[in-house]
Amino acid sequence: MAIRQDTQNNLRIANVNPHKYATPLIPTSFAKLLLYKGFYDYVKLKGVDVGQPLELDVLVDGTVLTGSGLSSSTAFVCSSTIAIMAAFGVNFPKKEIAQLTCECEGYIGTQSGGMDQVISVMAKTGCADLIDFNPICTQLPAGGTFVIAHSLAESQKAVTAATNYNNRAFECHLPSIVLSIKLGMKPREEILNLKTLSDVEGLCLSFASVHKSSDPVLAIKEFLKEEPYTAEEIEKIIDENLTSIFSNNPIYLNVIKAAEHYKLHQEEMLKKLGDLMNESHYSCSFLYECSCSELEELVNICRKNGAIGARLTGAGWGGCVVALVKECIASQFILDLKERFYQFRVDKGDISKNDLDLYVFASKPSSGAAIFKL
């Protein structure tokens, strides 16, 4: 995203592809409205004097396909936030920028947990970050590369959030509250501040210990039923109206816990990483139920053609698969995917053969957002 001050009292936003995206010319007075929930209000809240909103020219370009599960909306939000920050001549720590952009994305309609924003802003070249909001940079083992392949099932989070992404987050939030009550947690304020099942893991372990077990799942089997709960059942258990509980509480998810560090050789490390990816996909597909038929087909094709590990990425219900393959076979692996998954879609006319490189490509971790002054 390129940005500069304008002298015509307008906010002008353009894309390098004008045939796909219109170029609006917005008077400054309306620009103030656009900035209402964004950066301008944020810096005023922080006590930074930036004067009146600047008239800006903004040019946007990008190669991340929308709805692909590769954080295209986060890339846009982070880029625009940092660009406007630069235009105003102020600076904030990366941690604050990640938090701000996470809050901004909420106004789009997605209850983002913050991982996409953290990695977009704080990533380091060549490193995979384990993000549980105590980021740990881990050097990737040599000899491997990641191949990104689009399932061609587009997942528009802002459109389907209520029935998919946000709904699943809500469904994971509720059991933690139900379990805490069943296991005797008090006071009420602590119960309502619970975010995930990990917050009641200690209670589950205590329950298991009483029953001469070390398995925290014992409490889940005892107190939670497999069938869906109705709103009335939940309200009866918690003795509280659901609307009042969740109206002001953000929903955060920690889907994958930290894996124990093994001092392994490079081949073994790649195998371990691939296994973790496969286990994660199983969890997403069969436990969290956020996969789809196209993703399942693509994951299976990846594994049959040499992937060490493969899993869906992004929010799910469509978008891309990320596959870990040995660097030496990456080119052939991509050709195999084009033949075994994409060629059928080309023959059907769903996509153009000339666009295949947009849908499947190799990638390695790179650095996060940065400002270049020209």
From TrEMBL:
GO CC, one annotated term: cytosol
SUPFAM superfamilies: GHMP Kinase, C-terminal domain (SSF55060), Ribosomal protein S5 domain 2-like (SSF54211)
Record InterPro entries: GHMP_kinase_C_dom, GHMP_kinase_C_sf, GHMP_kinase_N_dom, Mevalonate/galactokinase, Ribosomal_Su5_D2-typ_SF, Ribsml_uS5_D2-typ_fold_subgr
Spans through the membrane: none
One Pfam family it belongs to: GHMP_kinases_N
Gene Ontology MF annotations: ATP binding; galactokinase activity
Its EC number(s): 2.7.1.6
Taxonomy, superkingdom: Eukaryota
GO terms classed as biological process: galactose metabolic process
Domain GHMP kinase C-terminal: 270-341
This protein's record includes keyword Kinase: yes
Residue ranges of every copy of the GHMP kinase N-terminal domain listed in the record: 54-123
Family statement drawn from the similarity comment of this UniProt entry: Belongs to the GHMP kinase family. GalK subfamily.
Name recorded for this polypeptide: Galactokinase
